[in-house]
Specification:
Helices cover about 35% and strands about 25% of the residues. The protein is of the alpha/beta class.
Length: about 260
C-alpha cells in the first residue's frame, strides 16, 4: 500500500510539472560562462521560453506533454558568442563612400584645344565623320579657333601625324578619323591593324589622349551607315570621347 501511494504521489507531481505556470522562470545556459534568464509562457499548445536572443518553442502532443524544443535565434542582444546573420556576412568589408572615383566632364570643354587628323582616302565616309565631330565640338562650347584639322593621304599615316601633334604640347586631345573598307586582298588587314596600333602608340608616346575614330568595315554600306546613316555618326561619338578624355587629363591627371 505504501509503495502504491508513493507511485500515485509521484504521478501527480509529474502532471503538475507538465502544466507549469506561464510565469515560472527557468535558467538556460547560453555559453560556457554566460547564462540568461528565460521567461516561460504558454499559448495555444506551446510552451515558449524567450530571451532577447534565443526562443525555445515546445510543441505539445496529444497527451499535453512537451516534445523536443524548437530553437529560434535573433541577432539582437546575443553577445557571447555573437550571432551573425547571412545578410551581415555578405556585407562588404569596405565602405564605398570612401572610394575616390574620377571621371571627365562633358560640361567643361570650353578652353580646350583639339586637333583632328583626317584620312582623305574614302573621303565620302571620312568627311561626314569630320562634320559630325565639328558639330559636336560646337555643341559643347569648343571654339572654332581651338580646333585644327589636318588631312593625310590615308589611315596608315594617321598615327605618325597624331604623335607629332601630341608631342607639340598644343592640344588637349587628338581625334583620329579614317575609314578602311575590306576589299579583295589582305591589304585591309594590314592597314586596319597599323592604323589601330599607330593611334595607340601616338597616345602612349606623347602622353596626350589620341582617340580612335577610324572605321573598319566589311563593305561601304556599313561605313556609310556609321557616317551619319542609321547607325549614327561615329565622328560625333569620337568627339565626345575626346572631350571627356581631355577633361580627365586636365582636371585629374595633369602633372
Amino acid at each position: 500500500e505504501t509503495s502504491n501511494s508513493q507511485f500515485l504521489i509521484q504521478t501527480q507531481e509529474r502532471k503538475k510539472m507538465a502544466a507549469a505556470s506561464a510565469s515560472s522562470i527557468v535558467v538556460h545556459r547560453l555559453h560556457e560562462n554566460t547564462s540568461s534568464l528565460l521567461l516561460s509562457s504558454s499559448s495555444k499548445g506551446l510552451h515558449h521560453h524567450r530571451s532577447s536572443s534565443l526562443s525555445l518553442l515546445y510543441p505539445h502532443n496529444n497527451n499535453n506533454s512537451p516534445t523536443t524544443p524548437l530553437i529560434q535565434f535573433s541577432p539582437k542582444g546575443f553577445a557571447n558568442p555573437p550571432f551573425i546573420s547571412p545578410a551581415e556576412k555578405k556585407k562588404p568589408s569596405f565602405q564605398t563612400q570612401a572610394v575616390r572615383q574620377l571621371t571627365g566632364f562633358l560640361t567643361k570643354a570650353e578652353g580646350f584645344r583639339f586637333a583632328i587628323v583626317v584620312a582623305r582616302f574614302n573621303e565620302i565616309v571620312t568627311r561626314p565623320l569630320l562634320e559630325g565631330a565639328l558639330d559636336t565640338f560646337k555643341k559643347y562650347s569648343v571654339r572654332e579657333e581651338d580646333i585644327d584639322v589636318l588631312w593625310v593621304p590615308g589611315s596608315f599615316e594617321i598615327g605618325l601625324v597624331a604623335q607629332k601633334l601630341g608631342q607639340s604640347g598644343k592640344y588637349h586631345a587628338i581625334l583620329c578619323i579614317g575609314a578602311v573598307v575590306r576589299g579583295d586582298t589582305t591589304h585591309y588587314d594590314a592597314v586596319a591593324n597599323t592604323a589601330a596600333s599607330g593611334v595607340l602608340s601616338a597616345g602612349i608616346n606623347s602622353g596626350v589622349p589620341c582617340i580612335f575614330g577610324v572605321l573598319t568595315c566589311e563593305d561601304m554600306d556599313q561605313a556609310l551607315n556609321r557616317a551619319g546613316g542609321k547607325a549614327g555618326n561615329k565622328g560625333s561619338e569620337a568627339a565626345l570621347t575626346a572631350i571627356e578624355m581631355a577633361s580627365l587629363f586636365e582636371h585629374h591627371l595633369k602633372d
